[in-house]
């Protein structure tokens, strides 16, 4: 069973909303390491490499950056970190140069400073690294690329790349942007791990993307197509009356949209609101319903929040330059929050109940 097949099975069994962001994550808690399995990887083979009795497991969760590498490549490779962009044809745009690399089935040569933890010690030193077809190297003399000054560091074809989740606590990393090269032959313990640390999130993302391309290649990576927005996913609403309604007749949609636009430009008033009844004194409303939501984590620190967001991918909510609001991972989309709220006042949708009462914003 591949990681992709297992994710599809888990989506069906848990009755989760089907999309392409679900991923299988390999987690080694005792080493504070984790990585997202590629779609084609065998789950049993990965598990068989774990040492007996180790605190290792698979986690089924969303990773919104899972396919970003194959959709918006240029943004992941800053010009300053790509050798060819600095040395090659200046008449070619940076994004075009990166795309040429990917179309040819190769990975651009990435370079930059990284902090390296010396083997057997807790001391970190800063070196200039270069990723080439033959492997990962670092310079023993500043930023020199002279072969005499390049020290071979790791064979990525025989290793896996992991994010370090508790780098400062466990390894004393200089920043929070640590990652690790773990050779296949290393089964347990810290010995044999090649620990590295970037200066910021952007540079770490670039290194991780380059390592991933180096291992699987853009031509062999199995990429799912991005689901298109169907007519059923876009909801047309009419708020001209005292209560809103869903427009089911497609020919009526344009007429209503034009009428609302004219009313908006002419009067400058807010869109008509759906009438909301005053709650009865004994009305029972689940005040803690937010605690049941997957996005609710309770009292956590800023550092924990950054790690959670980083693990699921630093991607925004825009698609094709458009911003939309959604509560069901893009299955139903709204142009603004007013439409989203008023739709769920009329239709329950994915919510446990319809929205009935609003909490007025007051100055405290």
Automatic annotation (TrEMBL):
<dbReference type="InterPro" id="IPR000159">
    <property type="entry name" value="RA_dom"/>
</dbReference>
<dbReference type="InterPro" id="IPR001849">
    <property type="entry name" value="PH_domain"/>
</dbReference>
<dbReference type="Pfam" id="PF00169">
    <property type="entry name" value="PH"/>
</dbReference>
<dbReference type="InterPro" id="IPR039664">
    <property type="entry name" value="GRB/APBB1IP"/>
</dbReference>
<dbReference type="GO" id="GO:0005737">
    <property type="term" value="C:cytoplasm"/>
</dbReference>
<protein>
    <submittedName>
        <fullName>GRB7 protein</fullName>
    </submittedName>
</protein>
<feature type="domain" description="PH">
    <location>
        <begin position="107"/>
        <end position="216"/>
    </location>
</feature>
<dbReference type="InterPro" id="IPR039665">
    <property type="entry name" value="PH_APBB1IP"/>
</dbReference>
<dbReference type="GO" id="GO:0007165">
    <property type="term" value="P:signal transduction"/>
</dbReference>
<dbReference type="InterPro" id="IPR011993">
    <property type="entry name" value="PH-like_dom_sf"/>
</dbReference>
<feature type="domain" description="Ras-associating">
    <location>
        <begin position="1"/>
        <end position="65"/>
    </location>
</feature>
<dbReference type="InterPro" id="IPR029071">
    <property type="entry name" value="Ubiquitin-like_domsf"/>
</dbReference>
<dbReference type="Pfam" id="PF21989">
    <property type="entry name" value="RA_2"/>
</dbReference>
<keyword id="KW-0963">Cytoplasm</keyword>
<dbReference type="InterPro" id="IPR015042">
    <property type="entry name" value="BPS-dom"/>
</dbReference>
<dbReference type="InterPro" id="IPR036860">
    <property type="entry name" value="SH2_dom_sf"/>
</dbReference>
<dbReference type="Pfam" id="PF08947">
    <property type="entry name" value="BPS"/>
</dbReference>
